[in-house]
């Protein structure tokens, strides 16, 4: 038996794991710190530690803002920074310009790195003890918890790789970051891009084998879409394989997720007023009680003596024309997805202020942070299909679902896929990764005239370069 070290892990005391709704992971402060030997003595302790990792991911430094509607969306030119509030223009211009050495931007990047590795440490603590405590689990809970932890470790490392290392197309043999699998003070050596991806895929292979039989679409059951579930693990494999240029494997995994029919695209004409992030289509998302209020704070225009633009603001002409292509039938653009607030057209993808008084009767699907969508599997299948007809069928399925006409066989498929990434993942942080993956020479609407391989690589924190501290 391993010596249980005298270390403490924050415990998020949540009862939601046992509730029938089981969809909300409340962002609360831990009531106590427990020694690991006590925490990992019960199944509930492992559940609470796993929930703590998900809560860690909802912090503003990562998916609660910067890696979704914040920093990553600014880098991808989702916003009109020069027309935003005066404070936003001053603080976000370096981000839009990809001026990584500016103090404000550099601090933002450092917080991303540190918070991500904080979450990885929580996951690794679970993995360090779960095998020796296998006997405390009932049913298939051991496989689910361990599978979630492994897949979550792969997910976070892959996002770090997409930020802090060159794209696969321009990779070299340099070592850019660690793939941390041990919990403790030991410093993990850095690895190459190839090594990181190999380790992530190995974690996902094991996660898949452990979560066999995981059903995320069962009506009335716990909402497994807010956990790193089996189909999110398969979807992440598809995402990684496409990043590597392995289109055969990317297509196979994307098709596997689509064909499993655990999550479905909404039917054309579905009323989306109460589910504006399309949570029913999520493969993996986070839930955070403060998320909508946090988003509203920076998306709502400020009013003092005069009304000023929001912090994150996109001009109406850019929204309508450049991003959504002047297509008024696109359900991602028309009301209720885009609405006026104090005279400014604002995305309501994450907002429900117009329905606040009716929220108790409408069962609003609010406060979800989408990290992987079923539509992405259709885009991956379209991009990696072996023949044009199959590719078109996958892409046109999404277009029809979103209220758009199908594209014709003579259309430029890659251009149409690019347009879809910009519309579907608006304010979600995925677009910059797309441009990086294809090694795009320019980000649309970006003030950066020419992108290079170096432009896509964020700098490591200074203390990481000096001490290897994590």
TrEMBL record:
Subcellular location per the Swiss-Prot or TrEMBL entry: Cell outer membrane
PROSITE patterns, sorted: PROKAR_LIPOPROTEIN
GO-annotated cellular components: cell outer membrane
Keywords, ordered alphabetically: Cell outer membrane, Membrane, Signal
Top-rank lineage group of the source organism: Bacteria
RagB/SusD domain mapped to chain residues: 348-439
Pfam families recorded: SusD-like_3, SusD_RagB
Name under which the protein is recorded: SusD family protein
Species this protein is from: Pedobacter caeni
Lineage of the organism: Bacteria, Pseudomonadati, Bacteroidota, Sphingobacteriia, Sphingobacteriales
């Amino acid at each position: 038996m391993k010596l249980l070290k005298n270390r403490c892990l924050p415990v998020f005391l949540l009862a939601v794991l046992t509730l029938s709704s089981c969809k909300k992971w409340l962002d609360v402060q831990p009531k106590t710190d427990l020694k690991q030997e006590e925490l990992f003595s019960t199944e509930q302790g492992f559940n609470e530690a796993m929930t703590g990792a998900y809560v860690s991911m909802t912090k503003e430094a990562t998916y609660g803002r910067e890696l979704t509607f914040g920093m990553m969306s600014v880098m991808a030119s989702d916003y009109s920074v020069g027309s935003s509030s005066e404070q936003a223009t001053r603080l976000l211009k370096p981000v839009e310009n990809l001026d990584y050495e500016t103090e404000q931007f550099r601090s933002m990047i450092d917080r991303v790195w540190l918070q991500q590795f904080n979450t990885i440490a929580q996951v690794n603590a679970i993995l360090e003890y779960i095998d020796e405590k296998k006997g405390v689990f009932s049913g298939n809970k051991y496989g689910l918890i361990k599978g979630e932890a492994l897949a979550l470790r792969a997910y976070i490392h892959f996002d770090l790789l997409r930020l802090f290392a060159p794209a696969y197309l321009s990779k070299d043999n340099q070592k850019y970051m660690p793939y941390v699998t041990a919990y403790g003070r030991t410093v993990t050596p850095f690895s190459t891009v190839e090594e990181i991806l190999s380790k992530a895929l190995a974690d996902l292979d094991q996660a898949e084998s452990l979560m066999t039989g995981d059903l995320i679409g069962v009506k009335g059951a716990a909402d497994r879409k807010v956990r790193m579930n089996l189909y999110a693990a398969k979807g992440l494999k598809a995402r990684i394989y496409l990043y590597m240029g392995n289109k055969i494997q990317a297509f196979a995994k994307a098709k596997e997720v689509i064909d499993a029919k655990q999550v479905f695209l909404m039917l054309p004409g579905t009323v989306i007023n109460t589910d504006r992030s399309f949570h029913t289509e999520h493969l993996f998302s986070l839930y955070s009680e403060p998320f909508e209020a946090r988003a509203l704070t920076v998306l709502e225009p400020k009013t003092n003596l005069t009304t000023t633009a929001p912090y994150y603001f996109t001009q109406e002409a850019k929204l309508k024309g450049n991003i959504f292509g002047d297509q008024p039938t696109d359900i991602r653009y028309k009301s209720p997805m885009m609405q006026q607030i104090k005279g400014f057209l604002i995305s309501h993808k994450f907002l429900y202020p117009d329905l606040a008084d009716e929220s108790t009767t409408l069962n609003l699907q609010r406060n979800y942070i989408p990290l992987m969508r079923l539509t992405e599997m259709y885009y991956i299948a379209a991009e990696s299909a072996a023949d044009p007809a199959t590719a078109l069928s996958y892409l046109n399925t999404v277009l029809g679902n979103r209220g758009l006409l199908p594209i014709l066989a003579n259309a430029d498929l890659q251009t149409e896929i690019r347009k879809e990434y910009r519309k579907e993942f608006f304010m979600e942080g995925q677009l910059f990764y797309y441009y990086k993956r294809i090694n795009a020479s320019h980000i649309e609407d970006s003030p950066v005239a020419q992108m290079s391989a170096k432009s896509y690589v964020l700098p490591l924190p200074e203390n990481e370069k000096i001490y290897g501290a994590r």
